[in-house]
Amino acid sequence: MGGWGGVGWGREAIGWTPQMPTAVTAGSIWRPAGTVGASRFDAVINFAGLKAVGESCAKPLPYYINNILGTLNLLDVMSTRNCKKFVFSSSATVYGQPESVPVTEESRLYVLNPYGRTKLQVEEMMRDITAADSDWRTIVLRYFNPVGAHPRGRLGEDPQGIPNNLMPFVQQVAVGRRKELTVFGNDYDTKDGTGVRDYIHVQDLATGHSAALHKLFTTPDIGCTAYNLGTGKGTSVLEIVAAFEKAAGLKIPLRIADRRPGDCSVVFTATDKAGKELGWK
User: Fold this and answer.
1) What homologous superfamily is domain 6-278 in, according to CATH?
2) Taking every annotated instance into account, which residue ranges of this chain make up the domain NAD(P)-binding (predicted)?
3) Cα 252–chain centre separation
4) pLDDT tens, residue by residue, 62-104
5) Global confidence as pTM
6) Prior bond to 102 cis, omega within 30?
């Protein structure tokens, strides 16, 4: 995000560290005060959190600890430093199974899994904080399904275990790291029976965060405002696989498995609000 420098806080105190630009200092959400030291910072974007729906159903406690307590740590340090501009990485999961699509920011919030509950609870914390103190300016960015990598291959998804997201799973099968792609459910009420999602490129998400920061610095009365970040188009799992096969010139072997707990059939978003208020598309 051009024009912004910063400190990076990870969700884990030890363990795997993602690739980070040299201008960013890495630290932990469990010791954010020690990481920043005497540094001055003007705003915080919180990306740190666990994010697999199925895993959250099997292991909910780590999700509540990381996603909620970690964010509380950040907000507490921000408050003591009088830094009151905050962008939160939320998720389309807070909409659950939508009553209708495309989803808008005014759609019903109805979570179906612990991961979604952690995101919604942080959103509610943000609304409480801004209601109590008008100096706070906060933006909730509800991601739909991020995919892709830096065009030059500098950054991209490289999961350490079995991927929880579609694209890295497809890519690992393509290069021979895995035997086949597991498709979770082919009995949804969709055109080909597989789940439909709104897949958005990570670079478009990055520009959305730059736009959100600009909005915070130029809109004193923003309070706590939510924006959906997606493409406005739904694409099925099998359509993604077919597009990858066409681009790569190879066949992706797959097998059908049962639906994952907490997954829904169709979710994609309208992008009007982000386009109009953030100047983002």
Assistant:
1) NAD(P)-binding Rossmann-like Domain (3.40.50.720)
2) 38-281
3) 26
4) 999 999 999 999 999 899 999 999 999 999 999 998 999 999 9
5) 0.86
6) yes
pLDDT in tens, 125-146: 999 999 999 999 999 999 999 9
Q: Are 57 and 116 in contact (CB under 8 A)?
A: no
Q: Where are the domains of the chain?
A: 6-278
For the residues 199-221, what does the mean pLDDT come to?
95
Secondary structure letter of residue 103 according to DSSP: B
Q: Which of 115, 188, 199, 227 is catalytic?
A: 115
Distances from the Cα of 91 to the Cα of 35, 119, 142, 178, angstroms: 27, 7, 4, 28
Beta strands per DSSP E along the chain: 6-10, 24-28, 44-46, 85-91, 137-143, 145-147, 181-184, 196-197, 199-201, 224-229, 235-236, 254-257
- Residue 71 buriedness (CB in 10 A; 0-12 / 13-18 / 19+): buried
Q: Can you tell me the distance from the alpha carbon of 117 to that of 110, in angstroms, rounded to the nearest whole number? A: 9
Phi, psi dihedrals of residue 244, rounded to the nearest 5°: -65, -45
Helix (H) and strand (E) counts for the chain? Answer: 9, 12
Told to judge if 199 belongs to the known catalytic residues of this protein, a careful annotator would answer no
